Amino acid sequence: METKNSVKSRLKISEDVILTVARLAALDVKGVAGLDGEMNAVNKLLNNRPVSITPMGDVAAVDVKIIVSGDAKASATALAVQQAVKEDVQNMTGIAVAQVNVYINGVKYE
After folding, report:
1. Strand, coil or helix: what is 52?
2. What is the pLDDT of residues 4-56, one digit of tens each?
3. Within 13 Å, how many C-alpha atoms sit on residue 47's CB side?
4. In terms of pTM, does the model score above 0.85?
5. How many CB atoms lie within 10 A of CB 68?
6. Are 65 and 36 in contact (CB under 8 A)?
7. Is residue 60 within 8 Å of residue 99, measured between CB atoms?
8. How far is CA 87 from CA 47, 66, 101, in A?
9. Whether 88 contacts 80, CB under 8 Å
10. CA–CA separation, 65 vs 78, rounded Å?
């Protein structure tokens, strides 16, 4: 007698979890002074988020708006954010990231 396991499991990850992982990954990169549009009352009303996710079938695209430190190279910082966000989101959630778009929306001098 043969038995078959026909139980299918399904895992759903909240978009908020993905956004949090991407946000923390970006903030952890050296040269990032902060994220543009951090959630305050005005940005909530305008739905202006510093990190957003766009599902594209089985993969996702992530947009991150950063503020670069005045002593950092903007292009190198943006590249490091792309790599960190993609790696962390894929490793922690299992969701494939097709692209990470980084927008440098400001420079912060100390």
Report:
1. strand
2. 555 666 767 888 899 999 999 999 999 999 998 765 555 555 566 899 999 88
3. 2
4. no
5. 24
6. yes
7. no
8. 26, 18, 14
9. no
10. 10
